[in-house]
Design brief:
This protein is α/β, with parallel strands linked by helices. It contains 13 helices and 12 strands. The protein folds into 3 domains: 211 residues; 91 residues, Elongation Factor Tu (Ef-tu), domain 3 (Beta Barrel), CATH 2.40.30.10; 129 residues, Nucleotide-binding domain of ferredoxin-NADP reductase (FNR) module (Rossmann fold, 3-Layer(aba) Sandwich), CATH 3.40.50.80. Helix 1 runs antiparallel to helix 2 and helix 4 runs antiparallel to helix 6. The structure holds flavin-adenine dinucleotide. Flavin-adenine dinucleotide binds next to strand 4 and strand 5.
Amino acid sequence: MKKAACWILAAVQLLVVTGCWLWFHTHHAMGNLLTGDAAGKLLAWGRLAGLLAVLAILFQLMLVGRVRWVERCYGMDRLTRLHHVSGFALILLLILHPVLVTFGHAIQADLSYWEQMADFCKTWRGLLTAVIGLSLMIGASVFSVLVLLKRVRYELWYATHLVLYVAFGLTFLHQVVSGSDLTDHPAFKFYWIALYAFVFVNLAVYRFAWPLLAFARHRFVVTQVVPETGDVTSVYIGGKHLEKFHVESGQFMIVRFLADGFRWEAHPFSLSCLPDEKHLRLSIKRLGDFTRRIPELKPGTPVLIDGPHGVFTSRTCSSDKVLLIAGGIGVTPIRSLAEELVGVGHDVIMIYGNRNSETIVFKNELDELAARTGSKFRLVYVMSDDPAWPGEKGRVDRERIARLVPDLADRDIYLCGPPVMMKGVRTALAGLGVPARRIHAERFAL
Ligand SMILES: Cc1cc2nc3c(=O)[nH]c(=O)nc-3n(C[C@H](O)[C@H](O)[C@H](O)COP(=O)(O)OP(=O)(O)OC[C@H]3O[C@@H](n4cnc5c(N)ncnc54)[C@H](O)[C@@H]3O)c2cc1C
């Protein structure tokens, strides 16, 4: 229901904008869209590309602005994927707008394309800033493709994305000063500005104000830094009134440790055990330059928390029988879900894949949970590269899942692990006839 409401809201904006554009350009004194000359048509279509480009940008901001009511419907990883995919359509619109409009004016003024462009920049108010803004946007989009191809560092890409806010400001000036669809129609201009205000208020509230308010209320602080197995460290976070900080097992938070060497980066980490009134626990694997420094964190370090986020929770479960599948550090949300689901009486099987027995995180805790809860929690470790392991050896594949989980058809499945493993398990589950709606997955990538 809420999902449908989100889509209807977006579709209504699309209809309003295209509807107004159609009205303006079929009732335009200079260039009728239906009967006018080529220049008039180029101008009309170019303006539509511009309007839709801005609409797409605002849509993009709502997708990744951590807007809680949107995120609760879809989950952040799905929104991020949609953001990546729709970004490509946006680039096309961003390029089409100036090309079509410049050609249209060039024909009307009997100039070449470049002469027209130079004239724009010299004589049109707000045009130069729009050109700069547009160049910044296209540059940032190219960078995004490079980061998807893993050619540039995440942090560098993130910094360039911040430049986009400046770019939006520059193009906004162009729209309200020289965009004739807006300047000629005050009611449409009002709607347009209201649309911007709606998006930026949502961003201001959810992206910036919310974490600051949560910090003011709870005063999150690192209380303990505990080494786990191998290259994993658990960070315990305490604070005031934690019972009023509503976080569910399986969710993640984007944390910023306010200490030298940490404060300029915020990273997402899942809750690795059920939250209680005293602490939240994150368990972090050493992977890159940020996570490598986690063991150096000192108790007493204040923490800014953005979240909780995510829909990888028991709310999406439609059965009282569950299969949890974890791989490597993907065990963090699975570990907290296991504790919750077993606690409320679900029948849980957990398959936990690792390279070897030395890399199993939380082994004692999981064994203890299995011993305590008896037949309600069946725990199977699978080692992919440990000849001495007495139990299951190999990958979590179709044959193994079918053998270990004979009542698979009755279970909801929660999956979190390295991308290759998740892909393999999804294929195996599809091959075993599990419908996609029963598979709940968390990707450790945004
Ligand atoms: C929803 C979610 C939950 C996660 N939960 C855990 C967890 O419980 N335990 C754990 O150890 N890891 C978890 N991760 C992964 C963790 O966020 C990355 O390992 C960490 O951010 C890497 O940072 P780095 O600078 O050390 O490594 P880098 O080598 O700089 O980055 C490695 C990769 O991590 C991703 N990444 C880096 N920085 C960020 C960032 N600021 N935001 C988003 N992605 C980033 C990028 O894909 C990058 O390619 C989770 C990730 C997500 C998306």
